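Morning F.,

Quick status update on the modeling queue. The single chain you submitted on Monday has been processed. Sequence for confirmation:
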Amino acid sequence: MDTIRKADSRRGRIAYEVAGLSWLAEASDPGVAVVPVLDHGATWLEEPRLVSVPPTVEAAEQFGRALAHTHAAGASHLGAPPPGFDGDGWMGEARLSLPDHPSPAPASSSEGDSWGAFYARERIAPYLDAPVFSVSDRTLIERLCERLESGALDHDQPHLVSDVIARPGPVGAARTHGDLWSGNVMWTPEGAVLIDPAAQGGHAEEDLAALAVFGCPHYERILAAYNEASPLAEGWRERVALHQMHIIMVHCALFGRSYVPEAVSIARRYS
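Structure tokens below.
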């Protein structure tokens, strides 16, 4: 078997990837297939080298349906780390907060921390100190964060996830890949395979939105199949850009000002 070996000496990087791949793989039937970890140590892991083929419409639809089931496998709460992992995770080169317990509800609320409050606090605000943002940029993005924190932009998870959350038990969020841009979907002769996750508890629409950031083959067929398997909450198309805000903020912080106009545009649209 042809294999690849990934090495990273930074503390926790390999452990997070191994834990995330294992957690996603638990849902791989009927969820999406996940690249297996053949062996690993503290600073390295070994995986099979996947054979890449052009994606077909059939494979895209199968991927959409399977992704709905991966999400429905659930996580305990928003930002939940993969079981067995403790500490911050990573999304590319950006640190990713992974609280091991749900955040407490605001004093004004009798329910748990809302998606909007979590998204603003943990997925947008941490990048606002990046030097690429002007004072006016920050003001506009902070305004978006305030609206998110108010709960005005909260919305349901897709049907299969909402159904699992509604049952008695520990599930409070979707089980997400967390960095599902199209480069982290490998199209093989057997179908789509997930690689390089930033696995976490999150909102399922974030993975779907991430697929569109840099374009994805047969994107509309993926969405249609997903929506058939697990109907999305009303208005989901209007929220795609909102769910892209995290990955865009990460790109602003890591790659510079060329991504700032998009972040500002999203903030202006939803604030």
